[in-house]
Design goal:
By secondary structure, the protein is α/β, with parallel strands linked by helices. The chain contains three helices and eleven strands. The chain has a single domain, classed as Beta Barrel (L,D-transpeptidase catalytic domain-like). About 15% of the residues lie in helices and about 25% in strands. The N terminus is likely disordered.
Length: about 220
């Protein structure tokens, strides 16, 4: 008859060799932290800003991981002629301006759409998102079927730390101003039409503008 110690060792060996259960995709339920597991340690959550759309945001506490020293932001003489509070995106210069009034503006460096994926016109900010989730549009999934159907907000998410969604006539244009997980792309034409900013810059801009802000894309 097997001894109790032998039975215990056999049980431990059986547990160690048993396959791990599948981990379901986490869509970040509020007021919880993701459990530690194969993906790594728990990620703390954070309350969403009052103006963040909860359906498009991820309540994660990741702002402390942003490199605050790497910024393109500077105050300059306003080159746009727009009233205070207007965002102007100059795709040729790859600059974004927030007009402050009194002839001054805040300038940020941006990445813009590559050839064939550019958009120009007037719009307004129709939605704001904090560590936005990313759902590639069907057209993009057709071009790149290897992409995930959805990705929650994270340091690796291509939308970065914040997103401002551009609307026309109350309808989503599918173009955004957002952060990036590729900081070296700023200053280049690389995106699928959206406007990329450094995460520290888009966090700063997010705090300065509200829904309804006019956006001019040149």
């Amino acid at each position: 008859m097997s001894s109790p110690r032998a039975l215990l060792l056999a049980s431990l060996v059986g547990l160690a060799s048993a396959p791990l259960p599948a981990v379901a995709q986490n869509f970040w339920p509020f007021n919880q932290s993701t459990p530690a597991g194969p993906a790594g340690p728990a990620v703390p959550t954070a309350p969403l800003p009052a103006d963040a759309d909860p359906a498009y945001s991820t309540p994660v506490d990741l702002d402390g991981q942003i490199d605050r020293a790497r910024t393109t932001r500077r105050e300059i003489a306003d080159p746009t002629g727009q009233p205070a509070g207007t965002l102007t995106i100059n795709t040729k210069l790859r600059k974004l301006y927030l007009s402050e009034g009194n002839g001054r503006a805040i300038e940020y460096g941006i990445g813009v759409g590559r050839q064939g994926f550019t958009w120009k016109g007037e719009a307004e900010i129709g939605r704001k998102a904090y560590w936005p989730g990313w759902t590639p549009p069907p057209e993009m999934l057709e071009r790149r079927p290897e992409l995930p159907k959805h990705l929650d907000g994270s340091m690796g998410n291509p939308l970065g730390a914040r997103a401002l969604y551009l609307f026309q006539d109350k309808k989503d244009t599918l173009f955004r101003i957002h952060g990036t997980n590729e900081p070296d792309s700023i200053g280049h034409a690389v995106s699928s039409g959206c406007i990329r900013m450094l995460n520290v810059d888009v966090i700063d801009l997010y705090g300065r503008v509200a829904k309804g802000t006019k956006v001019v894309v040149l």
